[in-house]
Specification:
Length: 169
């Protein structure tokens, strides 16, 4: 199921937390400097769910919160504002993080030999683990056979290249 979003900020919020985050993000775009109570009222969400989304988005620097005194009640409340200009840098930072993890995984795949017994519930073993178990699966006792991970390595290289191209733009 593909859902179209009207704004990158809303799309990122949806990817981070699903439909509730989308509602909160849209409410922030429609009502700048809104309190969590105003957002809850506008979205129909419970206040604890709104606050969870707000704190998560705030922790990722996608929104800002300003502490102000409520003139009616006298206590402090936060007024929240979307930082749409931070969305692109957030996406770039995530791409860099993913790129780093993919490079580590590729290095691991290239520097290890893997063995498996062809039983789906059993895990794949490194050469060292297979040797320690005399090339016999410790879970099901079937013989361990070498796994060809060439396809996985090629897929990792392709994705790394794709991300590097996107980051260089």
């Amino acid at each position: 199921m593909k859902i179209e979003y009207e704004d990158t900020f809303v799309k990122v919020a949806g990817l981070l937390g699903g439909p509730e985050y989308v509602k909160v993000a849209r409410a922030l775009l429609n009502n700048e400097n809104a309190t969590d109570e105003e957002i809850a009222s506008a979205t129909g969400l419970k206040i604890k769910n709104v606050r969870k989304a707000l704190y998560d988005l705030y922790g990722r620097s996608l929104i800002t919160g300003i502490k102000v005194r409520d003139p009616k009640r006298g206590w402090f409340v936060y007024r929240w504002k979307a930082q749409r200009d931070q969305t692109d840098s957030f996406i770039q930072a995530q791409r860099k993080k993913i790129l780093g993890k993919l490079k580590l995984r590729l290095e691991y795949e290239e520097t290890h030999e893997f063995y498996h017994c062809n039983t789906q519930t059993c895990k794949t073993r490194t050469f060292e683990e297979a040797m320690e178990n005399f090339f016999k699966c410790p879970d099901c006792s079937k013989p361990l056979n070498r796994v060809d991970n060439t396809e996985l390595k090629e897929a990792l290289k392709w994705k790394i290249k794709q991300l590097e191209e996107e980051l260089s733009k």
